Amino acid sequence: MSNPVLVCALRRINAFAVLADALKRLTPYREKLSKNGSLLQTVMALTPEVTFRKAILFFTETDFHLLKPICFSPVAGEHQRCPAESLLAYLQQGAQILCTVLLIKPGAWSHSLARILHKLHLEKFTVVGMKHVDLDPDVVLSLLSSEVKQDPAVLEAHCTYLTSGTALVLCLQRPNAVKKLIDLLGPEDPKLAQALDPFFWRAQYGTSTVQNGFYGSKSYQIAVRDMKLFFPEGLCCTKCRTLEEEEV
Fold first, then answer.
1. pLDDT of residue 59
2. Which residues of 112-129 are buried (b: 16+ CB within 10 A; e: fewer)?
3. CA atoms within 13 A on the CB side of 50
4. pLDDT digits (tens, 9 = 90+) for 84-143
5. Could you tell me the CA-to-CA distances from 97 to 119, 174, 228, 236 in Å, in that order?
6. 3.30.70.141, 1.10.10.10, 3.40.1380.10, 3.50.50.60: CATH of 97-231
7. What is the SS3 string spanning 11-44?
8. How big is the CA angle at 178 (ends 176 and 180), to the nearest 5 degrees?
9. Confidence at 235, pLDDT banded by 50, 70, 90
10. From CA 170, how far away is CA 177, in angstroms rounded?
11. Alpha helices (H) along 83-144
12. How far apart are CA 20 and CA 7, in angstroms?
């Protein structure tokens, strides 16, 4: 090639979709550059497998190291920098097994538990924790979004409903568990979920934004918090690497 190229290794949640969208928005700029005698061309890897093959062509093991996290040393009795870990090693391992939390709200699980468990099985989730819980107001507040808390009437409706009966809490495990569960549940408004895709779980089991059937951890950090909240005694699974790192 007559001109140099810039090769970037990018990392973030949902990286492929976000990068593809960003490149689409560059189209007008590519057209302007082409009129000026220059052409901006972009090529991205479309799958994790292709990403790995391209990464080892352009980068070495020492180029890819995660930032050293802070961890507690029982020997030293203080927080220290953990050893850096190679990002290439993570790519070679493939998708990490993660856990997330699904709370089936009062009324929904008692009528449809068998069907819900069957759906989870079809989506290759493994149930590694299950318990009935009577939610107290403090726990309910920790589960609700900041938008809900801004409206006193909506907040009271959620609290009243979630404390009105027994809920069922499941800890679920599979690769990419958090995002997969959120994608299955759909929007929190069952009417919107029904309009977008009638197969969304909230479209099938929800009746309103309050009684929408399910709560699911919205991020991995929230999932870790929820696991510690609902399953302080531990989980019935062999601890995977991510669980060991979070001390769940």
1. 79
2. beeebeeebeeeebebbb
3. 6
4. 556 666 555 556 788 999 999 998 887 888 999 999 999 999 999 999 999 999 999 999
5. 19, 5, 17, 15
6. 3.30.70.141
7. CCCCHHHHHHHHHHCCHHHHHHHHHCCCCCCCCC
8. 65
9. confident
10. 13
11. 87-93, 108-122, 137-143
12. 16
- Length of the chain measured in residues: 248
| pLDDT over 70, % of the chain | 73
pTM reported for the whole predicted model: 0.65
- pLDDT confidence tier of residue 226, bands split at 50, 70 and 90: very high
Instruction: With CA atoms as reference, report the closest residue to 99 among 219, 215, 14.
Output: 219
Distance CA 237, CA 231 (A): 12
- Mean pLDDT within 226-231: 93
Is residue 57 within a helix (H) or strand (E), and if so which, with residue range?
A: helix 48-58
Domain locations along the chain: 15-93, 97-231
Position with higher pLDDT, 164 vs 74: 164
Can you tell me the distance from the alpha carbon of 177 to that of 128, in angstroms, rounded to the nearest whole number?
12
